[in-house]
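Changelog note: in this version the structure field was regenerated for every chain. One regenerated record is shown below for reference.
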Amino acid sequence: VTVQWSPRADSALLLTQTAVDSTGESYYGSTHLFLLLENDGKRPGFGSAVSVPLPAEAAAGGTGTVPIVGTNWITNPQINGPVPFAVISGRMPALASLHHGITAEPSFLFGRAHRNVMDVSPHGRFVVCGGYGNLAGGMDFWDRNKGKRIPRRVALNDSASGGGSYVTIKEATDLTVTSCSPVVGHQWSPDSRTYLVSTTSPRMNVDNGVHIYRYDGSLVGSEKLPWENSKYQPDKLLSAEYVPAPFPTELEEKSFYYYPDRPQSPPPRGVLELKGEAAKAALTKLSSQNSQSNGRKGNGGNAAPASAYVPPAARKTGGGGGGSYVPPGARKGSGTGRGGGGSLAERMRREREGSAANVSGIKVTKRTGPVGASSVSASVVGGASGEKSKSALRREKQRLAKEKAEKEAADAAERANEEEEARVKANKADPAKRAKKINKTLKQIDEIKKKKGSGVELNDDQKKKVASEEGLRKELASLGL
């Protein structure tokens, strides 16, 4: 049993694992996930336990119970509304999803991939879906507030000359990052701007070292790091972690965080962004340069063969090369018709580009049944993932206040009409009785006027009664008594 407390400490995730599946449907046992709440919304003062419903897509391609691969809370306790949590479920490629912090219903789907870890930045804005341990080390960097993968800007070689240019990578398949070494340790920096992965001993006794990625998945060059990974190889690095942020001072306690919550950085000023065919050509040239550089490193410094680099999607079926670069979004076919490779890498690519594309970046809007019984109705996210912004909450509050004021005005008008109808009926039933009551009220009005003349300040009820004098005298005259 594993328990994970929420950042507000008012709820927890309870993950149970059994070595044997009593139903006989799984050789690897079974897992179940529960959400424990301190206060039940329907019964204040009473706690409750909710079995977390998994998206129907998590059960695709398998039978029996859906395995739970990993869970994690969104780490920011100051976000609007309940604190959501993330779940990776299903058989590989597993499905990553975001769930509501009270109902536990899925609210957003990150997509299917070979991932087993969800790392959330300290401010809860950025999320990394990683495949570590016995997986290949793939990483997807997401902006949770926007519900999208973070685009990555790549500066070209001429950008150092003053003007420069860059290209923006936006395709999901191109944004996936694979670690250059097996990942043992992984951690977000306290300011949520960089992400650390490390290979350490004794888990791995080769290729020990630390690599830093920016929040968009771009690798920080080794020349910018204050250490040399070669000094830790092959097995001299035991651990690598960020130093925690200092505690906020008394003046900073209201902000909760020592470092501010910063969104994605804007595009650089004065630098040209290449688009269209120019961007495709620049990416192909950059890929060719990287391939030749990697070839020289692998051959002990000798130059790689002089053949031009051809992206995998542009290679012809017989391995003959040639053809222009086509971005993943413009490629035709589902993957089975492109190259037709049967290797593990080819199958993983087809799974990533095929089935994952159908459920990636999806906001779940409605559940129509239990897991496996029916699918969910979903729509592509264009904004925040399940959380309302401050301006949206303010507009909703103003709308509710306006509706409340209109309702109160309508109720007051309705009460006035009812009183008028009751008065008319009373006049018809017994005019003498009504005249006696009016005379009594007029006498009270005369006394109130005397008080006002002596300098006594009148309350609202007295002012209202004085204002009704003219109408009462007209009504008394109409009675004819």
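Spot check on this record: The chain has a mean pLDDT of 75. The radius of gyration is 34 Å.
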